[in-house]
Amino acid sequence: MGNPTISRRLYFLRESFRNLRSTGSVAPSSRFLCRAIVGKIDPEFTKTVVELGPGDGVITRFILERLNPDARLVIFEINEVFVEKIRATFDDPRLTVIHDSAENMGVHFQKMGIETVQYFVSGIPFIMLPESLAESITAACIQYLTPKGKFIQFHYSPFMLGFYRRVFGKVEIEVVPLNIPPALVVSCEKKQLNDMHPH
Ligand SMILES: C[S@@+](CC[C@H](N)C(=O)[O-])C[C@H]1O[C@@H](n2cnc3c(N)ncnc32)[C@H](O)[C@@H]1O
Questions:
Q1: Which residues contact 174 (CB under 8 A, 6 or more apart)?
Q2: Angstrom distance (rounded) from CA 5 to CA 53
Q3: Which residues lie closer than 8 Å to 172 by C-beta, 6 or more apart?
Q4: Cα four-point dihedral sign 71, 169, 106, 114
Q5: Tell me: the pLDDT tens digits for 75-120?
Q6: Which atom number of ligand 1 is nearest to the Cα of residue 33?
Q7: Whole-model pTM?
Q8: Whose CA is closest to atom 27 on ligand 1?
Q9: Which of 21, 98, 101, 106 lies at a C-alpha separation of 20 to 30 Å from 49?
């Protein structure tokens, strides 16, 4: 029996190298990054959280710990190996695992009767993807976000910050140095009508 932390890291690394563009990192998020992300979720306000690109489920575990028993978490992951791993790891009736790209969320939400989402948590490496894909995924998130809801994304560089300011308006940034590599948590609120047309 090897060290479980090391074998988890090696397993993640193997998937990263196989799918470098879509995985976009060589290590799962640290507990410091996971805590910074879930700290932005207010459990009393939350009915539905959607996680995009959960990888091996490192943030998923923290989100489930944070949520109330009557809330739900829906996750979208394109990598089949990660999907199987998550299905084998979590036995939680609040969790729905969807093996599909985040851009198709609307079709699944319709089938599931989901009309609004309080938080999106995303680890999708938008910087490695065509901007049009980043735009269609964030547009879908904006369509479902409730007022005061948040789109929370982590990045390893500030290059995409202009993109979030343009599509969301209100953007807050937290630096998390204790991660490989150090990360930024970008937390975006949906533009409200009166933000767009101030009197
Ligand atoms: C940087 S990893 C993040 C993994 C994990 N959330 C973490 O924090 O360690 C990015 C993940 O996004 C997934 N991904 C990439 N594009 C996606 C898409 N369009 N829809 C859903 N998942 C996607 C990849 O397969 C990968 O698991």
A1: 36, 184, 185, 187
A2: 20
A3: 186, 187, 188
A4: positive
A5: 999 999 999 999 999 999 999 999 999 999 999 999 999 999 999 9
A6: 8
A7: 0.91
A8: 55
A9: 21
